[in-house]
Write a structure and sequence with these properties.
The chain is α+β, with helices and mostly antiparallel strands. The chain is built from 1 helix and 6 strands. The relative contact order is 0.15.
Length: about 80
């Protein structure tokens, strides 16, 4: 058996073992992730709303805060 065929067989075996381990490990772990998450909408105080500017990596960037969003992402409150 030459080196090229040997490497093909070894790589197929490694890939099969990797796929098998991923498949079996995911099927054994059941979680209830939504049980503790954010339940209600958060209202940002008026003093913090608006467009905020900051410097990152030498560039000026901005963050827009509204009553219920930060850069378009909804803010939820955990209870």
């Amino acid at each position: 058996m030459n080196k090229r065929n040997f490497l093909k067989i070894i790589s197929i075996i490694v890939i099969a073992i990797g796929i098998g381990s991923i498949t079996f490990s995911k099927s054994n772990h059941n979680v209830n992730a939504a049980s503790w998450g954010a339940k209600s909408l958060f209202t940002t105080p008026k003093a913090t709303r608006g467009t905020w500017y900051y410097k990152e990596d030498g560039r000026i960037k901005h963050c827009k805060i509204t009553a219920h969003t930060v850069d378009g992402n909804v803010i939820k409150l955990r209870h």
